[in-house]
Structure formats: C-alpha cells, structure tokens
Specification:
single chain, 300 residues, alpha/beta, nine-stranded mixed beta sheet, globular
Length: 300
C-alpha cells in the first residue's frame, strides 16, 4: 500500500528550505549546469531539469549544436547524459565529436574510419601498420585520449523507427543500472519521430512536447528535443515557436544569417540562436559561427 505524502504548508517547510539554501556555500554566476558557451549559459541561467526544444531548418546544424552542448555539459559539470538518435548512427555522432575535438575535417576522419577499432578513435594497430594512418591521425588519437575521462559519462543510443518515449525511459533505466549513476541530461534527436505519423506536424508537436515536458518533470532531468521546422514558419518570425510549443520550458530557434555568412571565410556559416521562450532566464538572440566540416559552434 502506497503511503500518502504528508502535505505541509510553506510556513512549516520554511526553516528546512532556508537550511538547504544555507548549505550551498558556493557563489555561482548561474543556477544550473554550465553549457560551455558563456553567453548561452548566462541567458539560460544554466541548464536545469526541464524541456528544451531546439528548432531549425534541415542542415542548419541542430544535431551538431546539441551534441556539442551535451559533451560540454559532461566536460564542465561531470554530469552523465545520453543522446538518442533516430537518424544518425553512433559512428556518425562519434565522428562529429572527434572532428570538433581534433579540428580535423569530419570527411577525413570518415575516410579513416576503418581504424576506429578501439575507444573513440584510438587505433589498435600493429607497429608495421602505423605508416597507413592518414595525416593528422595522431592529433585525433591524442584528442580522443584527453576526452576519455568525460566521454565515460556519455551514452549514444540508436533508436529503431518504432521507438517511443516508453522505450527511451526503459533504456535510460537500463543505462542507470549498468552505470550505477543517475542520468541528468537527455538529448532526443528528431523528436518528431516519437509522435503519431498520422497526426499533422502541428498536432504532433503539441502532443510530443507535452509528453516530454511531463517526462522531464517526472524524472527531474533536462531533456533536449531537436525538432525540424515542419510548420513552414517564416524565417523572420522565429518567435511564433514560443506559442506553438507551449509545453516547453525553453524554446531555441536556429536561423542562418545569410548577410553575415557572406562576410565570413569559408567554410564558416553565421548562425543566430533565437531564445524565444525561457521560463528561468532571458530571451533574446545569440550569434554563433558554425564550421560544418569540424561540426563546431563558436560564440561570435
């Protein structure tokens, strides 16, 4: 029999709440986890449990941005997390990370992917095979070895086409048992795949984000749902997404800045990140330079 939770007034709980706050001695610039992007961390007041929806046109770099953010949260905060992918394989996601860490073109890494036989690009080769390594591979190997300590906190999951939120929750439970750790941040790439394909894009968006917001609240984790722009929202009106995704705590819309891109050296692209909804912090625009070849975002 489940015991009923004792309901107490805020006055009765006040002393305990003040003691909890007093035990936190650190003076922090932000309330949540550091994103690795200084301006984004300040605007969001860090990453806290809740639903974050990241929207953008196909090919704009949504997956690269959230993968980089997941990696940086693990690096800076030692927070374990998982990336659920419907479209990309683990190998493709690993190559994105390795390209960003090493500064090598992802195409070069992909050509040498036959050597990815061991932990995140550390090649397992006989001594007479080292001459076969492509240029820059030693740089890649060193970057992978240096990152291993926080890569131990990251789990990449390939989703089947029929996967749903129930499957994701089950997998999270399995990971937490195996790792003996509670996952704090989850990325779901192509979040629209969780919905009923018979629903219109607008209906699917509302239903799926409501389910994910409840899941984030129930599990006390930060959920990042990557969503393609299927609603044909005009590029000049990203704020419309704040109204369309009412269940989210934060809504961020990626948009290519064609005018600024023309001023950048190739292969950089200028990207504007619109924070159109933010329950815990600021709304506004942040400017990034994106290098697709290395799958890297840098605050401009």
């Amino acid at each position: 029999m489940v015991e009923k939770e004792l309901i107490l007034s805020e006055g009765a709980l006040l002393e305990a709440a003040l003691e909890d706050l007093q035990r936190e001695h650190r003076v922090k610039d932000i309330s949540g986890w550091e994103t690795g992007f200084a301006n984004l961390s300040r605007a969001l007041d860090g990453i806290v449990p809740g639903l974050y929806v990241v929207v953008g046109r196909p090919g704009i770099g949504k997956t690269a941005l959230v993968k980089q953010m997941l990696d940086q949260v693990a690096l800076h905060n030692r927070v374990p997390g998982a990336f659920f992918s419907f479209a990309e394989t683990r190998q493709e996601l690993r190559i994105k990370t390795l390209a960003r860490l090493s500064g090598l073109d992802s195409r070069e890494i992909r050509r040498g992917s036959a050597y990815l036989l061991h932990w995140y690009g550390v090649p397992r080769l006989a001594s007479n095979q080292t001459s076969e390594l492509p240029p820059g591979w030693e740089k890649l190997r060193r970057a992978a070895e240096e990152a291993k300590i926080w890569l131990e906190l990251i789990y990449l999951i390939e989703c089947a086409s029929a996967s749903n939120l129930h499957h994701i929750e089950q997998t999270l439970g399995d990971i937490q048992i195996a790792a003996n750790a509670t996952l704090k941040i989850v990325v779901i790439d192509d979040g629209q795949r969780l919905g009923n394909r018979e629903d219109s894009p607008g209906e699917r968006l509302i239903k799926v984000t409501d389910e994910l917001q409840e899941f984030a609240k129930r599990s006390a984790i930060a959920v990042f749902a990557v969503w393609p722009d299927l609603l044909e929202v005009p590029q000049s009106m990203p704020q419309i997404w704040a109204e369309r995704v009412s269940g989210a705590d934060v809504v961020m819309v990626l948009e290519k800045d064609w005018e600024r891109t023309a001023k950048l050296n190739e292969p950089y692209q200028a990207i504007t990140l619109h924070i159109v909804k933010n329950r815990c912090g600021e709304r506004g625009k942040l400017v990034f330079d994106f290098q697709p070849a290395c799958c890297q975002f840098v605050e401009a």
